[in-house]
Amino acid sequence: MERNNDKKTFRETLSLLKIKRIDRYIIKKFLGTFFFSLMLILLIAVVFDFAEKIDNFMEKNAPIHAIIFDYYMNFIPYFAMLFAPLFVFIAVIFFTSKMAINTEIIAILNSGMSFKRMMWPYFLSSLVIAIFTFILTNFVIPKANLIRMNFEDKYYRSSSRRIAVENVHRQIDKDVYVYMGAFNPLSLRGQNFSIAQFNDSGRLKSLLSASSVMYDTTKHKWIAMNYYIRHINGNEEQITRGRQIDTTIILKPEDFSRDPGFVGTMTYRELDNYINQLRMQGSDELKLFLIEKYRRYANPFAVFILTFIGVSLSSKKIRGGLGMSIGIGLVLSFSYILFLQFASQFSLKGNLNPMLAMWIPNIIYSVIALVLYKLAPK
């Protein structure tokens, strides 16, 4: 008897989740409004960006083909994913408020459909956008960013975006550490360079120190200048000096000074592998890449949160009409983005765990979404 009841309950659940005509109507409204509003803002962004950079393009004789296909065809998906959660929210607020003003929501609920069941097409639409966002962010946009940044370096920016760094520490192998007091990525030169190797017991085995170091782009090796080497074997110590020597460290100039946008050029697997490498090296850049990794998980989830908040806010008529709903929606969405930026900075500059930093806004706004969802049917 219980088994028959379970089967009946399961069939009823499947029947409720079956996509109906009203579901297709809401999904069409949701996705149509989202993509239309996103395309509109992208068109405006492209126009303003082109107006700002046209002088640089003409000055550096950028080919039209490169401007269109190397820059703007890769700029558009990057900009779209940057603001996708925001425009999900705006789309939901806009078309749901119009449905409420036209008493369509009341008609749907009066037909016997519960508010919970009415959320099903919204969830499906959010799922489509979230999957789309995750795939683009982790597998498509990184390669597009690399092409776009190379174009900018060649035809827009007057110099490289790499910046000089100080006090660089790297672990390049087990018990082998590299230190550089300062590194200039433009000249590929560093100051106060040293390589320290330790034995299994943690005692210093050898130390190479040099006043300066230079990366030879022909040999693909680091050349230490004005160096001395200490070899320690038990109680014996041997010192060797010289003007210059080729080192055998497997590091590239990019490993000391990355372009600030480099983190956005790595696919999911590349990012994961690079994080493991940075963790082994004990690099100070580790937090930045961990934040990017967890951001790529958190952003698709934000689509669901902002959708639920948007529906809960705009599913009934309120004094002030559509403008009031959009105003409240914009305040909440921009506060979410601001909160996300604050959390990432606290993680970079402080001791806040990167994963927690990226998920704190989602956790807080999930609570807000749940409260609003509970209040909405009332």
- Sketch the topology as an H/E string, one letter per element: HHHHHHEEEEEEHHHH
| Percentage of β-strand residues | 15-25%
Spatial strand order of the main sheet: 1-2-3-4-5-6
C-alpha Rg, in Å?
28 Å
Biggest β-sheet, characterized?
Answer: 6 strands, antiparallel
Distance between the termini: 37 Å
Record field, number of beta strands: 6
Mean pLDDT score, rounded?
A: 84
Unreliable parts: none
Number of helices: 10
Kindly state the percentage of residues in helix. 55-70%
Domain module tally: 2
Shape: elongated
Backbone structural class: alpha+beta
Short description:
The chain is an alpha+beta fold and about 375 residues long. It has helices at about 1-15, 20-60, 65-80, 85-100, 105-110, 115-155, 270-280, 285-315, 320-350, 355-375; strands spanning about 165-175, 175-185, 190-200, 205-215, 220-235, 235-245.
Written account of the structure:
With about 375 residues, this protein is of the alpha+beta class. It folds into two domains: about 1-155 and about 290-375, no CATH class; about 165-255, no CATH class. About 60% of the residues lie in helices and about 15% in strands. It has ten helices and six strands. It has helices at about 1-15, 20-60, 65-80, 85-100, 105-110, 115-155, 270-280, 285-315, 320-350, 355-375; strands spanning about 165-175, 175-185, 190-200, 205-215, 220-235, 235-245. The protein has a six-stranded antiparallel beta sheet. Helix 2 (about 20-60) crosses helix 4 (about 85-100) and helix 9 (about 320-350) runs antiparallel to helix 10. The two termini are about 35 Å apart.
